[in-house]
Amino acid sequence: MQFNILKCHGSGNDFILINEYEELLFTEQQRVILSKLFCNRNGILGADGILFFQNSKTADGKMRIFNSDGSEAEICGNGLRCVGRFACELFNKNSVLIETLKGFSQVIKDTNIYQSIPTYQAELNIISLASKDIPILIDSDTLINQPLFTNDLLLTAVSMPNPHLVAIVNDINDSELEKIGKLANQLPNKIPDGTNVNFCKIIDSNSIYVRTYERGVGLTNSCGSGMSASTLVTCLLGYNSFNEPINVYNHGGLVICTPKLIKKDKYSVFLSGNATFVLSNSIKFEFSNLDNIIQYFEKVFVDEIQNYGRFIEYSTQFQGKLI
Fold it and tell me: What's the topology of domain 131-274?
């Protein structure tokens, strides 16, 4: 079989996008195989996950996201922006409604976050602080700025609706984050479905830095839902205010999150950032012979890659002035 793929990224969180809008190309088992095969960093492509764009009866399209370990995630904020851009350009629209595993998200073409950087905003609106929605097995209904693993690390649990634990820290230590991230995903009696873990550093008023250990992936350049969860937590704990845009720096650049308190216990986060196309090509292989995969390169989006490189330099320099 032969099919097209698009390599793309949001804040360095990179994906392989496969268009299944006209017809479904793969079975569920084949999607798991593809995610493990194509996302392998030592393989032919390498990515944090695969985005499958499909038809929807109730929206402009449907996004399914499979992590590099073959597991399926409920949502992906960075992936939503990439799928949103793809759908907007496919249908010649500036706004699309995307169905996800747990609901719907409006994605709109936004003002460029930096010169010549295609920017899209995704609304994450299925948010809960209830421990049962994480799910996390604790004695209280919520976990807000409380110890869970160690007494010196205070965590807040948020469902975006994928599960997140957020810690406000003075400094971000990758080794410590990876240790906590692995631990949180090896406790079936406490966190049966695993969770993403985020370390968040307050840089300045309305500016934070977030680093995420993603369930099913590991340390990533960024995580859209993780950055959204972190901004929400900074508002809950009084570091920032609702309805105010927050600059969120990350290993992959910068996004802007605006958490909103709709009503008691009802929240939304508007996540705005790049949706960058890297390359498109076609893949030819058979599932019966995965050792024989042929790639036909079609286009490298050189300008987008170079423009994003300049954006990384800008965000790194500006972040350095704040810390």
Answer: Diaminopimelate Epimerase; Chain A, domain 1 (3.10.310)
- Please name the CATH architecture into which domain 2-109+275-322 falls: Roll (3.10)
Residue 312 Cα distances to 255, 276, 293, angstroms: 11, 13, 33
Alpha carbon distance 27, 1 (integer Å):
14
Hey, what amino acid is at 229? A
Catalytic residue numbers, as ranges:
76, 223
- Torsion over CA of 75, 76, 77 and 78, rounded to 10 degrees? -160
Could you identify the residue written with the tokens 């706004």?
Answer: 95
- Can you give the length of the chain in residues? 323
Asked if residue 77 has pLDDT above 70, the reply is: yes
- Mean per-residue pLDDT, 278-289: 94
What pLDDT shows up at residue 197? Answer: 98
Q: What is the C-alpha to C-alpha distance for residues 218 and 198, in angstroms, rounded to an integer? A: 11
- Backbone φ and ψ for 81, nearest 5 degrees, come out as -65, -40
pLDDT of 322 > 80? The answer is no
Q: Which of 262, 266, 229 is nearest to 243 (CA)?
A: 262
103-112's contacts with Cβ under 8 Å and 24+ in sequence apart are 103/161, 104/58, 104/59, 105/75, 105/80, 107/80, 107/81, 107/83, 108/84, 109/85, 110/272
> What pLDDT, on a 0 to 100 scale, did the predictor assign at position 318?
65
Parse the chain into domains and list their residue ranges.
2-109+275-322, 131-274
Residue 124, judged by CB atoms within 10 A of its CB (0-12, 13-18, 19+), counts as: buried
Distance CA 244, CA 214 (A): 26
* Nearest alpha-carbon partner for 215 in 238, 233, 192, 235: 192
Does 131-274 match 2-109+275-322 at the fold level? yes
Which residue matches tokens 């996800």? 100
pTM over 0.90: yes
